[in-house]
Design goal:
Elements (H helix, E strand, L loop, with lengths): L1 H35 L17 H34 L4 E6 L4 E4 L1 H7 L17 H11 L5 E9 L2 E11 L9 E9 L1 H37 L5 H33 L7 E3 L1 H6 L16 E4 L7 E3 L1 H18 L6 E7 L5 E8 L6 H4 L11 H7 L5 H11 L3 E7 L3 E9 L5
Parallel strand pairs: 7-9
Antiparallel strand pairs: 1-2, 1-5, 3-4, 4-5, 6-8, 9-10, 10-12, 11-12
C-alpha cells in the first residue's frame, strides 16, 4: 500500500514538474520574443491546464511585434531622411562618435577632405589637423553650447578657408555612439570678397580725399587772400577745375563699378552689331580733349547678323581701352581698333593696339586690379582713376567673355576681348 502511495506522489510531482518546465519554457520564449522584437506562435502543451493564459500571452506577443516593427520602420525612415538631408547639402557634413571616429560623411566632405579614400572609421584628425576643430569638440564634450569657428585647410598647395559649425547629435540619432555633427562651409571666396571690399573702400577713400583736399585748399586760399594776383588766381581756379573733373571721373567710375557688381542684371543685352557700336565711339570720347581722333585707325570686319549684347556697356569698355592708350602709351603713332570673327562665327574679338611704350612684365598680372596704376605721375596728370581697366574686365565677364593683354616694352600693347555671339547672358 505504501508503494502505491509513493508511486502516486511521484506521478503527481512529475506532472507538476513538467507543468513548471513547460511554463518556464513558454515564459522564456515570450521574453525572448519581446527582447528580439520577433513574432512567435505559442503552442499549448497538453500538460498545461485550461486556466493557463496562453491566448493573453499570444496577444501580447503579436502587439509587441507590431509595435517593434513600427518603431523600426520609423527609426529607419528618420535615419534615411536625416542621411538624405546631410547627403544633399552643399556644405560638407560629418558625424563623429565620442572618440572622434567618423561614422558618416556626405559626398562634399569626401571630395574636400578625402577624395582618395573613405573617411568612415577613421579619426577626424587624420583629415583635418586644425586646432580650432579640436577646441570646438572639446568644448562640446565639456557641456558648452554649440558654436562655430574658422580654420585654414591646406592640401596639395591649395589653401582653403572653412567655417565649421559643431553640435551635439545624441538627441537626434538613436545611437549613443554618434555624438557630434560637423558642418563645414568653404568661405574662401567670401573672405576674398571681404578683403577686396575693405581694400576698395580704403583705396576709394584715399583717391577721393586727394582731389577734395586740393579743391578745399585752393578755394580757401582764394577766399582768405583776396589780394592775390590775377595770374595766381587763375592758376588756382584752373587747379580747382582740374581736380573737380578728376573727382567727377572718380565718382562716375565708382558708380559704374557699383552698378556692375551690385545689380542682379548688370547688363541689358539687345541685338546689335559690334562694328556699328565702334563706329559711334566718338560720342564716348568727346569729353576727353587729350584723345586725338586723327590717330584712331579702324579695321572692322563686317557682321552679317546682329547678336545680343549691351551696346552702352561695350562702348564704355572700348572707350576705356582707347582712353587708357592715350593716357599711358606715351609716344605712339596710332591706336588701332579692330574686330575679327571666329571661323565658326560664334565669337567676335575686339582688339585695341598702340605702338607706344608698353607695360613692364611685372605689372601685367595686376593691370586689371582696382586703383592699380603703372605710372602714377602720368595718371594724376591725365586725371586717371585707376578703375578704367577694372570696369572693362567686369563688363566683358558679365557678357560671358574674357579680356587679355599682351605687351612688350618699347613695342606697344594689345588689349583684346572676346564676346560670344550666342545668348550666354
Amino acid at each position: 500500500m505504501l508503494w502505491l502511495l509513493i508511486l502516486i506522489l511521484t506521478l503527481v510531482a512529475g506532472y507538476f514538474g513538467l507543468q513548471v518546465k513547460h511554463t518556464n519554457r513558454i515564459i522564456r520564449q515570450v521574453l525572448g520574443s519581446i527582447k528580439e522584437g520577433n513574432s512567435l506562435i505559442l503552442e499549448k502543451p497538453f500538460l498545461l491546464g485550461d486556466n493557463f493564459p496562453l491566448r493573453l500571452c499570444q496577444n501580447i506577443l503579436e502587439e509587441n511585434a507590431e509595435k517593434m516593427e513600427r518603431l523600426v520602420e520609423e527609426s529607419n525612415r528618420r535615419t534615411h531622411t536625416f542621411n538624405e538631408i546631410l547627403g544633399g547639402m552643399l556644405d560638407g557634413a560629418m558625424i563623429l562618435d565620442g572618440n572622434h571616429l567618423v561614422t558618416f560623411s556626405n559626398s562634399v566632405a569626401l571630395q574636400n577632405f578625402s577624395p582618395d579614400g573613405p573617411m568612415k572609421g577613421r579619426r577626424i584628425e587624420a583629415f583635418i589637423d586644425a586646432f580650432e576643430v579640436l577646441e570646438l569638440l572639446d568644448k562640446l564634450s565639456r557641456g558648452k553650447k554649440p558654436s562655430k569657428a574658422e580654420f585654414i585647410y591646406e592640401k596639395r598647395g591649395k589653401i582653403t578657408v572653412y567655417e565649421i559649425t559643431c553640435g551635439l547629435l545624441s538627441p537626434v540619432r538613436s545611437s549613443q555612439n554618434e555624438v557630434y555633427l560637423l558642418l563645414l562651409r568653404d568661405i574662401t571666396e567670401i573672405k576674398r570678397t571681404e578683403r577686396l571690399r575693405k581694400d576698395f573702400v580704403a583705396n576709394a577713400s584715399h583717391e577721393l580725399r586727394t582731389p577734395v583736399t586740393m579743391i578745399k585748399g585752393f578755394s580757401e586760399t582764394l577766399i582768405e587772400e583776396p589780394e592775390i594776383s590775377h595770374n595766381q588766381s587763375r592758376s588756382f581756379i584752373s587747379k580747382i577745375h582740374k581736380n573737380a573733373l578728376r573727382l567727377k571721373a572718380l565718382v562716375d567710375d565708382l558708380l559704374s563699378i557699383s552698378e556692375l557688381e551690385g545689380s542682379e542684371q548688370a547688363i541689358n543685352p539687345t541685338n546689335n552689331k559690334l562694328s556699328d557700336v565702334i563706329r559711334g565711339i566718338d560720342l564716348y570720347l568727346q569729353d576727353k580733349p587729350y584723345v586725338d581722333s586723327e590717330k584712331l585707325v579702324f579695321s572692322l570686319e563686317e557682321e552679317r547678323e546682329a547678336f545680343p549684347f549691351d551696346a552702352i556697356k561695350i562702348a564704355m569698355a572700348i572707350g576705356n581701352l582707347i582712353d587708357n592708350a592715350f593716357k599711358y602709351a606715351g609716344n605712339f603713332s596710332a591706336v588701332k581698333i579692330s574686330t575679327q570673327l571666329s571661323d565658326d562665327r560664334n565669337f567676335i574679338t575686339c582688339s585695341v593696339y598702340d605702338d607706344g611704350n608698353g607695360i613692364p612684365a611685372n605689372d601685367i598680372d595686376r593691370i586689371f586690379e582696382r586703383f592699380y596704376v603703372v605710372d602714377k605721375g602720368r595718371s594724376r596728370e591725365k586725371g586717371g582713376t585707376g578703375l578704367g581697366l577694372s570696369i572693362v574686365k567686369r563688363i566683358i565677364e558679365a557678357h560671358g567673355g574674357n579680356v587679355r593683354v599682351k605687351s612688350k616694352l618699347g613695342e606697344g600693347t594689345i588689349f583684346s576681348f572676346e564676346l560670344p555671339r550666342i545668348a550666354k547672358v
